[in-house]
Each structure stands twice: as structure tokens, then as C-alpha cells.
Amino acid sequence: DTDEVLKWNGSEWTPQTDATLNDSAAGGDLSGTYPNPTVAKIQTYPVSSSSPDTDQVLKWDGTEWKPQSDESGGLTLPYVGIYSGNGDAFIIEHTGTPGNLAEFEISNSGNSGDVLWLKTNGSGNVINIKNYGTSDAIFLSNQSNAQDAINIKNYSNYNAIKAYGYGNNEVLYLKQTGTDDCAEIRIDNSSNSDDALYVTTNGTGYAGYFNGALYATSASSGIKAFKIDHPLDPENKYLYHSSVESSDMMNVYNGNIILSNNGEAIVKLPEWFDTLNKEFRYQLTCIGGFAPVYIAEKISNNKFKIAGGTDGLEISWQITGIRQDPYANDNRIQVEVEKIDKERGHYLHYKAYKQPIEKSIEAVKNPEIIEELNKNKEE
Question: For residues 266 and 306, what is the distance between their CA atoms, to the nearest angstrom?
Fold first, then answer.
């Protein structure tokens, strides 16, 4: 009959009904009944009944084989994903041998786009990095001389960078082995009156510690000065004083002394005075009277003698000396210095010489200042 097959009955092959087409129960990794059983397992492991989407593959989720995205070869580009849940949208965990957890690269040298561009409209951090390992949380190696390793533009009212250090090491460590600035902090907006760099400490260490030469330019850089609350009106005014300038590494010492009954006096100086100083200059001024006072004995063994006065006359004295300690001897100030070629024709204080900003030393060091100014004018 129709659909019969030949079966061996023990003696001969005879036409019989095919048992696989009846309603007998399936077994093994199959469920349901014949002739249309369902694959319920793969090698005894259960298969999910979820319907798959296009391009999904079966993946083991720890409990069952389940239709999921195929990520074995990375994301298919362009990739756009929308997630509306409450958990993490993207997680990468690397448990293998040492290597990059994630690497983003632009191979096309003509592509001026960002390698990584992140944006948030929420209230959380754009990037939150926690490092519990033994290496750096962030490591930057800039092989280009044309672009910055880090370029941060902050348009909000909050900090562009905020760093907390709870360990025993530096919060921020910068090392520059090239020829340019290790770090540059600048406010381009001339109408911005806030500090470009503000440093404060509540600890016992220095707010700033510099090991090496320190150079600063400002409206007052040519006039080294101090600024304090005004003694007569500290709530409303400041008081400025300029420092005493000298082409030498000069120290100044002064005081007042009363002459004895023979019109003389010996001025005793600190025990380190002779060791620290050389090439002394002397000044004497009588107070409340007049006398032909003079230096009777020059400085020796940290003292000098005044004579020529009268008993009880007060003398105001001043001594200057040139430093002769080992550090000063090895680092004498070079008073007159030629400008290097690229700085010739440019000024530290271009405004004082009524020159445009293009003539400033700052424009030599940072040509992008001119570009920014011109861009702002165009806008």
C-alpha cells in the first residue's frame, strides 16, 4: 500500500507500514511525536523555545542554548545599538593573556575624525575609570608631532578635569622627553577672568613643588611683586609692592645700633654670614644727630666695627653681599642674553611696545593662539 516499506519479519522481506510516520513518541534529544518531532536538546543540553532573529546564532548562556547575536568576529560595521534598560549598555571583560582589552584605530591617515568620540546627555560621567590592577589607569603614547595627546574643551560650569587621589602616589604624573611643553593650561577667552590654574592644599605639603627652572609671563612678570590685603582697608583693597632688583645675586641686611661712650659699636652678624656672602658694601646713616661715622673695621668673623660717632648716637646701617654658596657659584645669572632665531623680532611684553599679539613670544610658542583669534574675529 501507499507509504509502506519493506521490513524483515524474521523469515522474509514483506511490505509493512513505516513506523517513523506514525504517532510514536520521539526520544533522545528530540521531543514530540513522529513524523514531526522537535529538537529539544543538543547533546543532552536543552534548547530554548525562543524564536530567533535574523543573523542570530545559538549560544550557550549557562542554562540553555539560546538565539543570540553573533559576536565571534566583532561588531558588524556600521553598528548602531539602542538600549533602554537600567543596567550597563556595553561590557567588555578580558580574562585571557595580556593584550589590549579594547583597541580603536584609524588606519586611514587622511581621516581627520576622532578615534573615540563619547557624549552623554545624562547626569553621570562621560568616562568613569577605576583601576584595581597594578598598572596605569590611563596610558597615552602620542607618536604625532602635529596633534595633542589630550585636548579637553569644557563648555560647562564644572571642572574640565577633577581628580581624586586616595593612594600614596601622585594624582597626576606628567613626563615629557621631547622638546615641547609637558603640559599647557590656557584660557583662550580673553574676557574670562578666572584663573587658568588654581592650586590649593589643606595638607602639610606644598601647594606647588617645582624641581627645575620656573618661568612665568604676565602683566606683572617684568615687575616681581607681592600682593596682600591692604593694612588700612583689608576688606576692600589690596596693597602691592615691587621687589628690589639687581643684576647680582645680592643679599641685603640692615639694622640700628646705639654707639657706646667712645662713639663706637660692633655689629654682630649671623654665624653663617661670611660663608654665604662676599664683596660687601656698607651704608651708615646717623639718626637724631650728625657725626663723621665710618667703618672702622670691615666684616671679618661675621662682625664689623663702626667708629667716629658720639656716645648714645643711633646709627642705621645697611650691608649688601653677593652670594657665594656652591649653588649660586654654579648658577650665576646671565644678565644679557641674545634671543634665539625664532624669537627675534618678538616681545615678552608686546603691549608695552605697542605691538600686535603676532609679535609676542607667546605667538611663537603657541601659533594656534593667532588661529583662534582670527577664528573668533570671523565668527
Answer: 6
Main-chain phi, psi angles of 368, to 5 degrees: -65, -15
**Distance from C-alpha of 292 to C-alpha of 304, rounded to nearest angstrom:** 17
Sign of CA dihedral 37, 39, 45, 46: negative
Pairing of strands 314-323, 277-287: antiparallel
d(CA 331, CA 337): 15
Q: In this structure, what C-alpha cell is assigned to residue 236?
A: 576692600
Q: Is the peptide bond before 46 cis (omega within 30 degrees of 0)?
A: no
Give the residue ranges of the chain where pLDDT is below 70.
18-23, 35, 71-77, 98, 144-149, 157, 167, 178-193, 215-222, 369, 372-379
Helix (H) or strand (E) holding 375, with range, is helix 368-378
Which distant-in-sequence residues (6+ apart) come within 8 Å of 238 by Cβ? 227, 228, 229, 230
Q: Which pLDDT score is estimated for 151?
A: 72
Q: What span, in angstroms and rounded, lies between the C-alpha atoms of 133 and 357? A: 48
Q: Give the residues across from 257 on adjacent strands.
A: 315
Instruction: Give CA–CA dist 67/256, Å, rounded.
Output: 95
- Confidence (pLDDT) at 76: 66
Q: What backbone torsions phi and psi does residue 304 show, to the nearest 5 degrees?
A: -145, 165
Residue-wise pLDDT for 164-219, tens only, equals 777 677 777 777 776 666 666 666 656 666 777 777 777 788 888 777 777 666 55
Report helix, strand or coil for 304: strand
Q: Are 81 and 91 in contact (CB under 8 A)?
A: no
Q: Indicate yes or no: pTM above 0.85.
A: no
User: What is the Cα–Cα distance from 192 to 183, expressed in whole angstroms?
Assistant: 20
319 CB neighbour count, 10 Å cutoff = 20
Reading the block at residue 130, the C-alpha cell is 577605576
SS3 content of the chain, % helix, strand, coil (to 5): 10, 25, 70
**Residue 150: predicted pLDDT:** 73
User: pLDDT digits over 246-271, tens only?
Assistant: 899 999 999 999 999 999 999 999 99
- Look at residue 1 and give its three-state secondary structure: coil
End-to-end CA distance of the chain: 92
- Longest Cα separation, the chain: 155
